Amino acid sequence: MNYEEWNGRPSIRVRISESDVHYAGGLVDGAKMMQFFGDVATELLIRADGDEGLFRAYDMVEFLAPVHAGDYIEVYGKIISSGKSSRKMYFEAYKVVCPVEGKAPSACELLTVPVLVARASGTCVVPVENQRYKTQRI
């Protein structure tokens, strides 16, 4: 998908802080993006089944661009297929704001073209006995 196609879908927007930095140069590890994917998955499951469910497994994860302290990240997800208790999902994370080097320490800019920093797909499970809706609401 491209950035515009995600409009209106479940998402989160977060600012990456200095406390999220794991590597030299203010670089954040990929596990942070996976945490955000899990948060979006939880919302998708609540909307679909009325339960947070559990993340069973990722079958694909790609880290495509670096993420640093000061970046703003938007994370989107959608359910792409459903079984009796399983929900196959797809996620993308975009950098939408980043710090500006060589300016004031607090200078940032809104990116005119958001940068795809990570994408993933995986499967979540909501046990049938925990599903509160007879038909999915997404």
Automatic annotation (TrEMBL):
Limits of the HotDog ACOT-type domain: 6-130
Signal peptide residues on this chain, from the entry's feature table: none
A Pfam short name: 4HBT
Protein name: 3-aminobutyryl-CoA ammonia lyase
One GO MF term: hydrolase activity
Keywords assigned: Hydrolase, Lyase
